Structures are given as C-alpha cells and as structure tokens.
Amino acid sequence: MKKIIFLIIILLFISCEDKKPENKKKSKETEVFESVSKAIRKRDFPLKNYSTIELVSYYNRIYWDTIKYKGEQPYSKVLVDNYKLTFDSTMIQERVILNKIQEKELLNLMICDTCVPEETSSACYNPRHMILFRDSKNRIIGYNEFCINCNGDRNSHNLEGFQKYCLYEMGDLFRKFGIKLFVEYDDEQKEYEILRKKGY
Length: 200
Description:
Elements: H1 2-32, E1 52-58, H2 61-64, E2 80-81, E3 84-85, E4 92-97, H3 100-110, E5 129-134, E6 140-147, E7 152-155, H4 167-176, H5 188-197
Antiparallel strand pairs: 1-4, 1-5, 2-3, 5-6, 6-7
C-alpha cells in the first residue's frame, strides 16, 4: 500500500512539473505580445471615402516650416485645412502614390494595435514623413505625419488617436514603397547644412 501511495505521489509530481513550463510559456507569450489595449487588436479604418494614398517625405519640417497657421507654431499647427497643406509643399522631396496592393499593406499596419506604450512616447518631434489620404477630387481628406526617430506623430482630426502601430514598421513600409529620405541622428548635421544652403 505504501508503495502505491509513493508511486501516486511521484506521478503527481511529474505531472505538475510537465505543466509548469507550459504555463510559464503561455504567460511569457502573453507578456511579450501584449497589445496596448487588450480589447482592441484590429480596428475599422475610419476614412471610407479616400480614393488614393500618397506618401511624402521632406527634411525636418520644424527646421523650415516658418508659416504660422491660425496663430499656431509649425510644431503644433493643423497641417491640412480646406483640403490643402498649410506648409510650403515645394519642400516635399519625394512623393509615392500607392497602388491597391500597397494600400492594403499600409492599411493592414494602420489598423493593428501592435506597439507597447514605451515605444510610442517621446519628447522630441522632427517630422520627415507623411501619409496623405485624397478623395476622388484629389483633395486631402486625412493625414498622418510622423517622426520615426522620436516616435511621435500628428494626425488629422478624423484619424486622431488612431496611431497605435510601431513607427519603425511604417518606416520599413515607406522604404519598401520607394521612399529614400531617412535621416538618422548622426546625419542631422548634414540635413541642417542642406537646409542652410537653401536659405532656411
């Protein structure tokens, strides 16, 4: 009888040991892949009436955007009003109009809640990239401007609070779709020199 009880205890112990790593693994996976919001994984994209999506790049807008708009400074002003940019569009260096396959890939990233809060907060803002959503009349009906280095962004009101994806992933998509202007921290002096030669 003692041998049977001893055998049952050993089997229970082995059974518990087998389960422990599995539970640890599950809790670790939850921790690693945990979203900003436990409730929201994917969302409906709020702009239904866009016709085209355009990617643009420019040198750090805060350096050269001297146009105040409705009393607001360049770093905090509305960037599109009356369907038009409120800054000097001649400073745009690159433009890429996405095809339907590229649009789908970009929107798949935008609707996903993928980044943890630490990856989306920063004090600086040096924007160089923007997504423009245009309607069938080529009017800008929404935008998402961002700074990859600072993990900061600005959005039109109809996209406010929508940015939960990782900006470095959006940077990878911009590169994939043909945008070449990316300024790393070490290259900011070169950027400054280029803008100084242009009179900024």
